[in-house]
Specification:
The chain is mainly α. It folds into two domains: about 110 residues; about 60 residues, no CATH class. The protein contains eight helices and no strands. The relative contact order is 0.13.
Amino acid sequence: MRPDPLWVAGVALMLSCCLLPRPAAAEKRPLPESLKDRDLFCETCYATVCEMYRLVKESAADSLEQRIDGALQRVCSASLLGRYAFPADLLEASCRDLIVRFENDLGLGLLAAFQPGKKPRIAGTVKDICLTRMKACKKSRGIPSLRKLNETATAQKVSAGVAPETDAPPRSAPGDASERAAHGAEQDAPVAGQPATTADANTDTQRDEL
């Protein structure tokens, strides 16, 4: 008795599907050259997120998506990135590469931060995007701008005869006036390159934990 041709064709199709090699998992896109330096990658994420957070918060656009899109288009500017731990022109170039590679992470992180009913906090947004989503920074204390501020504060304490704190929380990201007013004593720390006052260096309540 000859087998049914349709049955034979069906069995052959099933075997071919099982034996075909599975496609390799999509490889993770490599980092651009400008972001292969760990400190620059981390600082670029920090600076980009801080400035995008401010732009989104200050935008008058109707929808959150429009505010985020506008921030993505404006953020990579030397005039905005000139107050961080690397030269503004270097950060401007690395910011553009960061957005090309991580636009989704930036957008989703800001969407999560500014959800209705949720109080956005810049420190939490930096942690979510730079440490968790992008893994640009291994820990918040390693962010170059914050590391420099903490070193300056420690040096000021030593010169004043005050024992440095061994486990003090890092300083916050640069914030805007409205956020500082809203949080009262929880003021944002000055950015790298700007002198910190002795009071600011010695007041832990002015630090927003990252």
